[in-house]
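Structure ticket #2291
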Amino acid sequence: MFTSLAGSSVVVTGGSKGIGKGIAAVFAADGARLVLAGRDGVALEATAGQLRTEGAEVVTCVADVANPGDCARLASAAVDAYGGIDVLCANAGMFPEQPLAAMSPEDLEQTLGVNLKGTIFATQACLPALTASGRGRVVVTSSITGPITGVPGWAHYGASKAGQLGFVRAAAVELAPHAITVNAVLPGNVLTEGLAGMGEDYLAAMTRSIPLGRLGDVADIGHACLFLASREAGFITGQTIVVDGGQVLPEALA
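Resolution: structure written out below.
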């Protein structure tokens, strides 16, 4: 039985929908106090309202993690609300499709800005509070795409997600003296609003590629994040957990 995170202050970026919403729900069920960040204030409040009806303590902060000033404001909001930050779930991300030949500098900058720079900016902003916690946790949502697999049309996305792992390893060493662990979860195909938008044929093809025979649920990712944030995971840092139903294992599709 893991020690409960009840009462812990947890920041979830990209927390209004998709995997971020799933992460927030799992932490809320464990009694954590949440700060949800995202660019869409309406969606943030809808998610927060739903969690509050289930008994969760939640505040929101409209923020773009690609903006260091917004990240600083987010960290301040968490400290103001709960007196500190124990866990940062650096989850905010985007996955626009764009063939390499047509990719503009703006396309590249936007994806790297949110996925990679946003992870770094959010961690920097939360660092003083995570250090003061004495048991700080940073859990990054990366992906199997980039670190393990490659998908045509998502070269910029894959680069950003692989880059996150370089950050995780270096930050884990640098922050270890402050008792802060830094780890990453690598989701495979998880059923979110974005994935559903790819169409039924895509969903069926992805399901066939997963040995466990189903797409991931957002709670699957949330539980992996909760484990890495737990006291029991306190000796794990600079590591990755692949949560993909075995998708990357077969040498060829059956």
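Closing remark: The chain has one domain: 9-243.
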